[in-house]
Amino acid sequence: MLSMEELKLECETFFKSHPELEELAFDIELAKGELDLDEATIKPLLEDFVIQILIFIEKYHQNNIENLHDAIHKNLGVARNLRVLDAKYILEKIYKDEQTQDLEILLYALKQSAIRLNPQIAFDTLELIKGSKNFI
Question: Is the pTM of this model over 0.70?
Answer without folding.
Answer: yes
